[in-house]
Amino acid sequence: MNLVLLGAPGAGKGTQAKLIMKKYSIPQISTGDILREAVRGNTQLGLKAQEYMNKGLLVPDEVVIGIIEERLKGQDCKKGFILDGFPRTIPQAESLDEVMSRLNMKLDHVIDFELNEDVLIKRLSGRRICEGCGIMYNVYFNPPRKDMVCDACGKNLFQRKDDHIETIKERLKVYRAQTMPLIDFYKAKNMLVTLYLDGTEGPDLIFDRLCNRLES
Ligand code: AMP
Description:
Blueprint (H helix, E strand, L loop, with lengths): L1 E6 L5 H12 L3 E3 H10 L3 H12 L5 H12 L8 E4 L5 H13 L6 E6 L2 H9 L1 E4 L5 E3 L18 E2 L6 H15 L1 H8 L3 E5 L6 H13 L1
Parallel strand pairs: 1-3, 1-4, 2-3, 4-8
Antiparallel strand pairs: 5-6, 5-7
Bound molecules: adenosine monophosphate (AMP).
C-alpha cells in the first residue's frame, strides 16, 4: 500500500504514520525528519535546508524531490510506504507522479487530516520532545509529570525551533498557500480520503477510523 499523508503541521500525520507503519509493516518517509537529521549532521543538505526551516518556509522543491526519488528506490519501499509531509506543493506532486511511474509504482490513497487552526497552534506551540528517547509531550494536552523532563527516561525535553509561535504562524500561512491546493489535485484523481478531526480524539481512535476508511 502506497500512501500520502496530507494535512497542516500539527494535524498528527507523524503519529498516524507510525501507527500505519507498525500495522502494515511499511516504512514512514518523513521529509521533515530526513531534513532535521541532515541539519543535526551538519551536512551540505542540512546547511541549505536549515535557513528555510528556521523561518517556517518550504525547502526548495528540487531538494526534496531528489531526496524522495532516492528514498523510493530503497528495497524496503517495494512492499509499500507512507509519505509523511511530502508532497507539499503542486510541482512536488507532479514530480512524485513521474518518479513513481518510472519506478513502476502507483499511489493508492491520499489521507487528508483536517483540524481547526486554534487546535493546530496549541498542538505545535505546546509540543515538547525528549532528547533521549524521542517521546513527544504537549504542555496543554499531555504534559510530563515534571516540567521539561521525560517521564519515561528522565532526559530533558526540548522544543523544536520551528514550533515557536511566529514560525508556526508562517508555517500555517505556507500550508494554506502552497499545500492546500493539493486537496483539489488529489480529489480530482479520486484518491482523497478526508478525516475530519476535532482535537478531542486520541491517536488510537483516529487510527481506527483511518483503518476503517482504508479497508472499506
Ligand atoms: P515537518 O516536520 O513535516 O513539519 O517539516 C518541517 C520543515 O521541513 C518544514 O517546515 C519545511 O521547512 C521542511 N520540509 C519538510 N517537508 C518538506 C517538503 N515536502 N517540501 C519542502 N519543505 C519541506
